[in-house]
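Quick note —
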Amino acid sequence: MNTAAFWKAGRPLLLASGSAARRQMLEAAGIPLEVVRAPVDEGAIAATLLETRRTPAEIAIALAHAKAEAAARRHPDGLLLAADQTLDHQGRLLMKPADIAHARAQLLSLRGATHLLHSAAVLRRGDVVLWAGIASASLVMRNFSEAFLDAYLDRIGPLVTTTVGGYQLEALGIHLFEAIEGDQSTILGLPLIPVLHALRDLDCLAA
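Predicted structure written out below.
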């Protein structure tokens, strides 16, 4: 794809995330990318923040900042985008399940109920945070049977551990839901519209 009509920053945007969904969304929007590592212990950071009674939304933005800071130490001159997502079930934080059994327990706890997904993002260059934002979506899981859940987990396999909540809404996970309110990109882990607005304000994208 010729990105010259959209991208004005010259060098590719550094994406401090291993999420294929985030990479695909940005590439589809015509933004040249280079994926970089952001080595942080998300579980440890979240646990510390929970001890101070931080909300799942606050934890999402804190994790995005931590990733951006870690990546900036390795790439101090590049324009970095870091992102993170948390699942908020009635104020309780759910992280990526450790294994299929853990995913099954999480999905049973979400069955027939509404939960929120908070997707946060940070743009940073070196020591300077250029922008930070968060968006949320509301999702209602249907009251599926345990037989259906077992069939779903058998089909999706270990991939169930790669997303918060234990589902891939862009794939088979859509069968778990009754209703969804929110932007699709937010649900997939990136508040894309606010990120694009921020990049335009930074004169990185055509206005």
